[in-house]
Amino acid sequence: MGVELFSDIASKYNYLGVVILMMIGLYAMIAKNNLVKKIIGMNIFQTAIILFYVSTAAKRGATIPIIRHGHNGHGHEVIHAAEYINPLPHVLMLTAIVVSVATLGVALALAVKVYHQYGTLEEDEIRGQLRNK
Amino acid sequence: MENLSPHFPALIIIVPLIAALLTSAAGWLNRRLCFHFAALGLFTSLLVSTGLLASVLDKDVILYRLGGWPAPWGILYRIDRLNGLVLVVIFFIAFLNLIANKRTVEESFPEQLGGFYALYVLFVTGLSGMVATGDAFNLYVLLEISSLTGYALIGIGHERAPLAGLNYLFMGTIGASLYLLGIGFLYLMTGSLNMTDIASLLPGFYGSPVMVLAFLLCMTGLFIKMALFPLHAWLPNAYSFSPSASIGVIAPLTTKVMIYVMIRMTFDVFTPDFSFKMMHLGEVMVWLAVAAIIMGSLFALAQTRLKRMLTYVIIAEVGYMVGGFWLGNRMAVTGAVLHILNDAVMTLCIFLAAGAVVYQICGDDFEDLKGLFRKMPISMAAFTVAALSLIGVPPTCGFFSKWYLISGGIAAGHYGFVVALLFSSLVNAVLFFRIIEIGYFEPFSEGEGGHGVHHGPPAMEIREAPAGMLACLLLAAVSLIVLGIYTGDIVTRIIDLAIPPAI
Fold first, then answer.
1. CA distance B149 to B153
2. Which of B45, B129, B29, B146 is nearest to B88 (CA)?
3. What's the domain count of chain B?
4. Which of A51, A90, B41, B219 has the largest count of CB atoms under 10 Å?
5. According to DSSP H, which parts of B328-466 are helical?
6. From B148, B151, B181, residue closest to A49, measured CB to CB
7. Chain B: residue nearest A117 by CA?
8. Inter-CA distances, B222 with B79, B249, B251, B306, Å
9. Any chain B CB within 8 A of the CB of A113?
10. How far from each other are the two terminal CA atoms of chain A, in whole angstroms?
């Protein structure tokens, strides 16, 4: 039972990696005091999901999804899906990467605004300033 | 116009998208043009969405294949009665709020007009796309478009707004990421992203733990986005510190559109059979909604500033819709859908009135509101109509959706929900009559009364809000009563046919 469970987890190590990354990101977002560290945590969280999608596309012994000589008219042989990596998750994640870059940009812009206002990026100092007002 | 009508489902996204680009380009050339481009774009979209709703009433469902790709491979836009209605509400509110806040935007952001209006129109584009799309991943992308612009619209304000916007961004990103993860699991199981396609493939997976996980991830993500009670912490700060022009569109639309997405996912992706009968979540969700209603109302009672109080009222209202929906009987679901429409217009009206007050007196502390009925009679009359609607007094639309919700609660035998609704109506009555009393009976505060420092202009100079703002405010107030009068038609012709017959 124990060995089975272990081998089960070991064969799906990609999910384990994703969960660990997500938890690291979440921890940084909740526990860190510095706003930029929180933003980095958020980015790790998003990257974990990108890794999740991309890792689900992988197949053992498969190759990149490009059909050889496809445009010379020789590409009409039967194509076995098992021989190629699934390209769709990669394409979806291109969009998700763009989204996460945009999120990072907005977050940093807001952090700059916060810094100009309070002269610090530490959350406890900002809270202290707000309380003293 | 005639030959364009098959492309209406695409136009509701493309028109505002192009308008946003033109608006931001106009910012470099002539700043006066920005407003006109934005208004033109939103008005055209309003007409298009009205046309869509009219044709959906005859045709049931309109399917539009973007780029001509057939359904499971390409992105499908799917308009039916439910989202046709929500689309009209989105553009109506966005357009009205844009016109009403023309002057506040020009005065608050004279240098950033192009940027502000471009963000505003993009925000609306994201919302309408989210409502119209029939593709689960496309929904995520549009969700992020509206969220990112929403963070910026909130963070553009002064004082504590950037910090509140940043905290909203953290929570919102977690919510959207959880939704994306849920969609990932759905894709793993079915190999499809098209909502109808997923729904047809899913029955083979009922009972699989992966499906339960996907469902819970999607729903948790959406609950964060709609600020359901234990996950609501981002909302009050983000909403109360943001500029009036932003909040007038964000507060009525964001939470309501997220509730629409929840309904869309449970009905059309996970199917009512799975969501209601197999998950056994209904009971838990209704009790969460009860907690949201009661806690939202109690927090609202504790506030001493108008806008901040209203943000807690929104949290309670989210509880109405979530609770009504998860009761799962026809009456309550009708009430929940009707309340999406009514609550959006009520929130618009009350925030426009609050915006007019803040614009005139430069503050929203209850102390500042003394004697306002004599200084701003028309704005305060509209405020009173919106307040009556939020309380649920008959001629206004708020009464009818609450009636359906309460009847649904009784039909389901869930008296906790019924009591929570009645309690919240009572609290709303206390909240708003307190403000009306301050505004009507107490004399003006001449600057030295009440709380030492008075930031606004002296009381004698307070006048009625500018004409454009007033006109929009009155239109919103009148539409509350009109919606109330036509409730019967809306329910029988649109909502009844939009809810799947299985319920």
1. 6
2. B45
3. 1
4. B41
5. 330-361, 372-375, 377-391, 397-412, 415-441
6. B181
7. B159
8. 21, 19, 16, 27
9. yes
10. 61
Query: By the 8 A CB rule, do B319 and B228 touch?
Result: yes
Parent domain of B407:
280-503
Q: What is the dihedral of CA B38, B40, B44, B47, to 10 degrees?
A: 110
Structural domains in chain A, sorted by start: 2-59+81-132 (1.10.287.3510)
Size of chain A, expressed as the number of residues it contains: 133
Question: Considering the domain boundaries, does residue B61 fall inside one?
Answer: no
> Does the beta-carbon distance from A102 to B141 stay under 8 Å?
no
Q: Return per-residue pLDDT of chain B as tens, 503 residues.
A: 557 778 888 889 999 999 999 988 888 888 888 888 899 999 999 999 999 898 888 888 888 888 888 878 888 898 988 889 999 999 999 999 999 988 888 888 888 888 899 999 999 999 999 999 989 999 999 999 999 999 999 998 888 889 999 999 999 999 999 999 999 999 988 888 888 888 888 888 887 888 888 999 999 999 999 988 888 888 988 888 888 889 999 999 999 999 999 999 998 888 888 888 777 888 888 899 999 999 999 999 998 888 889 999 999 999 999 999 998 888 899 999 999 999 999 999 999 998 888 888 877 777 777 878 888 888 888 999 999 999 988 888 889 999 999 999 998 888 889 999 999 999 999 988 888 888 888 776 554 444 444 455 555 566 777 888 888 899 999 999 999 889 888 888 888 888 888 77
Q: How many residues does chain B have?
A: 503
Q: Considering only alpha carbons, which residue of chain B is nearest residue A99?
A: B144
The pTM is what?
A: 0.91
Which residues of chain A neighbour B193 with C-beta distances below 8 Å?
A: 92
pLDDT attached to residue B403? 92
Which chain A residues are closer than 8 Å to B177 by Cβ? 45-46, 49
Cβ B102 vs Cβ B353: under 8 Å: no
Are the Cβ atoms of B148 and A107 closer than 8 angstroms? Answer: no
CA angle B190–B281–B335, rounded 5-degree value: 100
What residue type is assigned to position B473 of the chain? Answer: L
Cβ atoms < 10 Å from Cβ of B97:
28
Partner A, chain B 52-111, Cβ-Cβ below 8 Å: none
In single-letter form, the type of residue at position B279 comes to M
* Interface check A92 vs B, CB under 8 A: yes
Kindly state the tokens that stand for A130. 């707000």
HSE, side-chain direction, 13 A CA sphere, residue B474: 11
Cβ–Cβ of A110/B160 closer than 8 Å? no
Q: What is the ipTM of this complex?
A: 0.90
Cβ within 8 Å, pair A29-B174: yes
Q: Give yes or no for A57 touching B (CB within 8 A).
A: no
* Spatial distance between the Cα atoms of B297 and B366, rounded to a whole number of angstroms: 17
Dihedral (C-alpha) B41, B42, B46, B51: value to the nearest 10 degrees?
20
